[in-house]
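ugh ok so i messed up the first submission bc i forgot one of the chains. this is the corrected input, ALL of the components this time, i swear. 174 residues overall. if the numbers dont match what u have on ur side tell me asap before i send this to the collaborators (the ones from the other lab, u know who)
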Amino acid sequence: MVPTHTIRVFGDPVLKRPAAPVTEIDGALATLVDAMYDTMYDAPGVGLAAPQVGVQKRFFVYDVGDGPAVLINPEVVEATGEWTYEEGCLSLPGLAFEVVRPKVVTVRGLDLDGNDVVVQGDELLGRVFLHEIDHLDGVLMLDRLERDERKRAMRLLREQGMGAPTPAGRRHAL
Ligand code: NI
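and heres the new structure output, hopefully the right one now
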């Protein structure tokens, strides 16, 4: 059993900083990835980026129902179409907002063996890819909202305070 990490929430400066590329894929990274799977399932969420556990490296883990996977140094190859979805984020506990993003997203990166991988995600999986890559760039879901929605989100964040319990029945958190 690998100890889980505390998920950093809005207000933590680590969430606003761009992460650095992974230069070494080793046992330490594999151990960290295992811990991040547990942290993601515990939350529960369908995606978790390294900066969300305080690690400023470019990788994220995800599982939209097909089993756990990791993508290291990910890049968007292609993003097409448009899909609106009520998106949540583990670093913005209790908040969910409709965000418009591309529908079909192809990403490339490395797996834990250092092999090149290309993965295409439709709807929720595509959204996870874009949301987590945003985290690696220091961008939060809040930054993707329209001005009025963003103001409403900031007000909700102020009112609930940090570490508020997450309401049941919310949508997937990424
Ligand atoms: Ni998130």
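quick check: The helical segments are 27-42, 124-136, 147-160. that seems consistent at least. The radius of gyration is 15 Å.
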